[in-house]
Amino acid sequence: CVDGGSKDKSIIEAGKYADVVLKTKQGIQNQYKAGFELVDTKYILLIESDHYYPKSFLKDFISQYENSDFDVMQAKVSINNPRNIFEYFHKLFQKVHQIYPKKRYDISEPSIWPKDILSRGLNSFQNIQGYSFDTALFEFLEKNQIKSCFCDVYAYEDTFINFERFLFRHI
Q1: Do residues 147 and 103 lie in contact, with contact meaning Cβ atoms separated by under 8 Å?
Q2: DSSP characters for 74-102?
Q3: pTM of this structure
């Protein structure tokens, strides 16, 4: 587990489940780089803590990835049971955004990456403070013409979306 300066007690909770808990400077790029130093693997799976994953998610996701000719793949994300109008419209936005799954560069989480490609991307980023990490990934994938796509495996968001958060995410 890698913590980039969280203010809540999540690092204490993570320590109950993780063998190693690292603290880094703020910034997702720093967190990923610190995590990379600990693993010896061919692929990296990027996930988000506010998503939940069906039991077969990992098996299905890896199967679709291994049976494709894409270098990077993102699972689709949805909200199962929208609780208000903003979550309903967020769900519609996601559905429209994910209609055309092939040859996409706007990849975020959950996604699976070859470690060498993601490492090259992270090392090519300059200072992305205040700059969207997802946008930096998008520009790296597009500039290098890396084959990336969405697949037909779903993860689900479990976060409250109100008017302010809806505007922040979509406007």
Answers
A1: yes
A2: EEEEE-SS--SHHHHHHHHHHHHHTSS-S
A3: 0.77
